[in-house]
Design goal:
The chain is built from 3 helices and 10 strands; from the N terminus they run E-E-E-E-E-H-H-E-H-E-E-E-E. It has 163 residues and is α+β, with helices and mostly antiparallel strands. Helix 2 packs across helix 3.
Length: 163
């Protein structure tokens, strides 16, 4: 069993490795959705690049995690496969990213659109993030510790902080 997962843009993964982590680097306008099942210590994460799969149907079929509307349902399905009794009561949900890094004038607003779409898709499943560190103009690296559910963020200027 792989103990550590490193996710690139559009990747998603789940793990129940007690000494492992799931990590994604340098979220700019991208958004990470982090799920943690406190009952079974299963964790999942997705690195979303764009809100809607309609922009590229072919890519959504080969890399559904690239889009919020196709990736989040798949991540939830993967979590449910790890624990068929997955319950909202024990599910911790966190969002990070969605910054405006290369879009200082907010012309495209991709970060904001990613945040809003992630929240919308989660709400369709009756889910709400319990913590968020989103927006602004800094990149974030996100690490989920599978043994504890602790989610750490990192930025070169800000250092490390817990979400």
């Amino acid at each position: 069993m792989q103990t550590n997962l490193v996710l690139g843009i559009g990747d998603l993964g789940v793990s129940d490795a007690p000494s492992g982590f799931i990590k994604t680097f340098a979220l700019g306008s991208c958004v990470a959705v982090v799920l943690y099942d406190k009952m079974t210590n299963n964790g999942g994460m997705i690195h979303i690049a764009l809100p809607n799969s309609e922009t590229d149907k072919a890519k959504s079929e080969t890399k559904p995690g690239y889009f919020a509307d196709t990736g989040i349902p798949l991540l939830l399905k993967m979590m449910k496969q790890k624990n068929p009794q997955l319950s909202r009561k024990y599910l911790s949900i966190k969002l990070a990213g969605g910054a405006s890094i290369m879009d200082a004038d907010n012309f495209f607003n991709i970060g904001k659109k990613n945040i809003l779409k992630a929240r919308e898709v989660l709400s369709r499943f009756g889910l709400t993030p319990e913590k968020e560190d989103v927006g602004g103009n800094i990149s974030r690296t996100v690490t989920l510790d599978i043994s504890s559910g602790m989610t750490l963020l990192f930025n070169p200027e800000k250092g490390v902080w817990e979400l």
